[in-house]
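Sample pair:
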Amino acid sequence: MKLNHPKAFLILILSATISACQTGPVSDTGLAGPVEAPEITGQTALAQQQEKLLQATTLESEEAWIEAAQAYQSLAEETAQPDRSTYYISSALMYYQAERYRYIEPFFESLDEEDILPKDEKYQDIILAGAYFGFGKIYQSLLTLPDIDEITDDRFKALALNIRSKGVLAIGKPLESVRLRIEIGQYLKTVKAIEKNHDFIWDALNRISEPTILRALAEPQTSELRGWLELNLIARRSNMLPDKIEPWITQWYQVYDGHAAGAYFAVNLLEESRRIYIKPARIALMLPFSGRLIKVSEAIQNGFLYAYYADQELGAELEIINASTVPAEFNLQYQQAIQDGADFIVGPISKEIVNQLQQNDKLEVPTLALNYAEATRKPTLNLYQFGLRPEDEAEQIADFALAEGRNHAITLVPDTEWGERLQNAFTERFEKLGGRVVGSGFYPSKKNDYSASIKKLLNLSTSNARHTIIQQVIGQPASFDPRRRQDIDMVFIAGNSRQARLIKPQLKFHRAQNLPVYATSHISSSNSNPDDDRDLDEIQFVDIPWMLDNSDNRDIRKSATTGPTAAGTLVGYTH
């Protein structure tokens, strides 16, 4: 939250202060006496102080946070109470704005007890709560915050609501976070601040499952909250398709006239649906139907054809091209497809060719590459990358676990480059959405015993060490029941089916039998014999629906019989 100090208003206040300070002693008649000569020196000092205050507030308005913090601190050191307390609070607030979270607690501890007046202690607690949240102490942050109703200063009330809303979101209460964010809205004055707050509300809403939204709508809610819930439901059920979302948003405006989201957010949502919607007239599917990628290409083609014929509203022609895996030859085929009228291209699969496409600033037509480029550079316009990266599954697990209310995780992955990639992907996503990864471990991928890694990760090694110390101190054996760490509510593991079959029983043996375990699809052996995977029971992992029992799967049966005789226009193969 940016705190603004309009200079014109400040100058008026300073002028009034100077005028007030120029009056002399009050006489018996009740009128101010003449200004005594010795007061001139005091007036000069006061003017200098006010000039420093103007400098500090100017630095704050320019978002030069560190310089503003130092200016306020200098003012505090030269000023008597009650202003000294105010300036120290302002200095700490600037450090908070600069995200120097670990500096704030030592800053307050360095002050004398009388430097912060009792009336300002609640503001000190708010800033400390923000600092605790900033370096991951979520619960300490929430416990430090004062009662919102006790805060009289609107700026600090908005800041406290901001910190609390982020805190409750981090512990898995997105609906409560939305309510707090709606309350913050009344204190925001600039379009930038309002839009940022709306973005936060939307992010929190997207973490609420649809059944939870429907249950909330079935209960009494404020008009403001109900409007946000219904707007999010519209975005979900329309799939952001303009033809669907536009009439629904029109109806939404009729019901929620004057809603806070109406001025900016709902309009932007509609414009976003139009911007991202692509309706091609001719699609070119470019896949290599020879060489080492032939089976992958055939599988993609089958799935693509099924979806193509199932979409009765698409109305686009389809050309299937046997694409080269040689970059120069592919480029010629790509340009020829565009000349033949393709306005949407699916392919290539080859990472080398995707890398080549990403070297362009812009592609002529929207292109969906079926792999990811290795190079990290500015995004190429019209290039969309889609693949089966293991990192994607790790990120999905993070989303799913948070949606289930898991907020404190440990990770256990193999000591390989692949394992490190998954650990990093899960951690980055989990913590970006408000969760915390409180411990990470690597197990020896080529061995069968992971006890050492698991015990260390669960803090059982520390527990055993305490037992040894106690026995040495008392000089005799002591009964001992090791306890695993209690600050976690889930485990994320990565590995193949052999490794996962070993990990789950060892977690159970080391007193983590009640800890939910999440994994990527790599733990599945795709074996139809359930006895082989009995040790994987209760592990939650992501996979495509077709990997489940598909004997009654309508989509799979239909895909086997789908062909060019179905609705649509198939141009055919191009070699």
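Residues 209-277 form one domain.
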